[in-house]
């Protein structure tokens, strides 16, 4: 992590290293299994796997921003938004990321990018319309913490590897069976490859979900400690979560695939089993943590 005034989080760092190691190992094993099962398609598998990974790593910020409808804006267009980001970056002693706005009524924010120099921080028009300045500051500090801790880059790469497994599987099956023709083992291969792909996706899904929940709590802590106003962040969390219920279900469904990157989930889990698979800790957990930080700051 670059040296900033955001509080370091060794727990987050260790979880990121372990997650990336396990997912990387899983991905190598997956590609290796495909190479063994589909020997005739190995050049295609290597090219697709390497090409997709490099493209995703270098263009992750643009891909994510485009997918979520974000548009980079100037200080003249959104002076208040840029002003808050400027103050927070000066306070945190970190480079200013590009600032974007997404035209949607869903109140949310996200950050993306492989490093601080390529980062983008985005707020939706729904968020800007609903929050008070100190609440907006808390949300943007939360997102800047993701950039400072580099967990946004880890989440982007980790999430993409699961999707890549499915893409490579489809390409490999197509290329492999074209080369095999009526091979008697084709039926067995047709069963094994989707099974391996499903296992890879399931494991990467669980690993990224566990990391995602922890990193949200870490960003809440860092933002509250940097700004010294955990109550403002708690107010923003409560307001955003409450306002989600007023958003049309169709709009929430469109935003749901990007939950792992958002400040608050578009559709929150309510059942205990669903919470284990969710991208965010519950609102109660986040508010409880902010309450403890507030008490500590008051005692200090």
Describe the structure.
- The protein is mainly alpha-helical and 300 residues long.
- The chain has one domain (10-299).
- It is built from eleven helices and four strands, in the order ααβαβββαααααααα.
- The protein has helices at residues 10-37, 42-67, 79-92, 125-130, 133-149, 151-180, 186-227, 230-244, 249-255, 272-276, 283-299; strands spanning 70-72, 98-102, 109-112, 120-124.
- The protein has a four-stranded mixed beta sheet with strand order 1-2-4-3, with helices on both faces.
- A hairpin with a 7-residue loop joins strand 3 and strand 4 (120-124).
- Helix 1 runs antiparallel to helix 2 (42-67) and helix 5 packs across helix 8.
- The model has no long low-confidence stretch (mean pLDDT 83).
Gist?
By secondary structure, the protein is mainly alpha-helical. It is built from eleven helices and four strands. The protein has one domain (10-299).
Distance between the termini: 27 Å
In total, the number of domains comes to: 1
Largest sheet: 4 strands, mixed
**Low-confidence parts lasting 5 or more residues at pLDDT below 50?**
none
Q: Helix and strand string, N-terminal first?
A: HHEHEEEHHHHHHHH
Strand content: 5-15%
Average pLDDT, rounded to a whole number, is 83
Helix content: 55-70%
- Indicate the radius of gyration in whole angstroms: 21 Å
What is the element layout, followed by pairings?
Elements lengths: L9 H28 L4 H26 L2 E3 L6 H14 L5 E5 L6 E4 L7 E5 H6 L2 H17 L1 H30 L5 H42 L2 H15 L4 H7 L16 H5 L6 H17 L1
Parallel strand pairs: 2-4
Antiparallel strand pairs: 1-2, 3-4
EC number: 3.4.24.-
Subcellular location: Cell membrane
Keywords: Cell membrane, Hydrolase, Membrane, Metal-binding, Metalloprotease, Protease, Transmembrane, Transmembrane helix, Zinc
């Amino acid at each position: 992590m670059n040296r900033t005034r955001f509080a370091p989080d060794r727990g987050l760092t260790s979880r990121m290293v372990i997650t990336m190691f396990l997912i990387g190992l899983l991905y190598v094993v997956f590609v290796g299994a495909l190479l063994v099962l589909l020997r005739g398609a190995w050049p295609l598998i290597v090219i697709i796997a390497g090409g997709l990974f490099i493209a995703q790593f270098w263009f992750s910020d643009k891909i994510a921003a485009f997918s979520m409808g974000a548009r980079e804006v100037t200080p003249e267009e959104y002076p208040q938004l840029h002003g808050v980001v400027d103050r927070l970056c000066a306070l945190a002693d970190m480079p200013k990321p590009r600032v974007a706005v997404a035209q949607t009524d869903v109140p949310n924010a996200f950050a993306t990018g492989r490093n601080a120099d390529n980062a983008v921080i985005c707020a939706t028009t729904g968020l800007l319309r609903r929050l008070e300045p100190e609440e907006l500051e808390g949300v943007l500090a939360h997102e800047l913490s993701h950039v400072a801790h580099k967990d946004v880059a880890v989440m982007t790469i980790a999430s993409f590897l699961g999707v890549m497994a499915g893409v490579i599987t489809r390409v490999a099956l197509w290329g492999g069976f074209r080369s095999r023709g009526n091979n008697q083992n084709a039926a067995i291969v047709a069963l094994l490859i989707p099974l391996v792909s499903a296992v890879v996706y399931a494991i990467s899904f669980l690993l990224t979900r566990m990391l995602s929940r922890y990193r949200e709590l870490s960003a809440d802590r860092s933002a509250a400690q940097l700004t010294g106003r955990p109550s403002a962040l708690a107010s923003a969390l409560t307001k955003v979560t409450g306002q989600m219920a007023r958003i049309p279900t169709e709009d929430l469904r469109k935003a749901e695939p990007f939950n792992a990157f958002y400040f608050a989930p578009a559709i929150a889990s309510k059942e205990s089993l669903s919470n284990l698979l969710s991208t965010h800790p519950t609102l109660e957990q986040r508010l409880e943590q902010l309450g403890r930080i507030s008490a500590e700051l008051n005692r200090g």
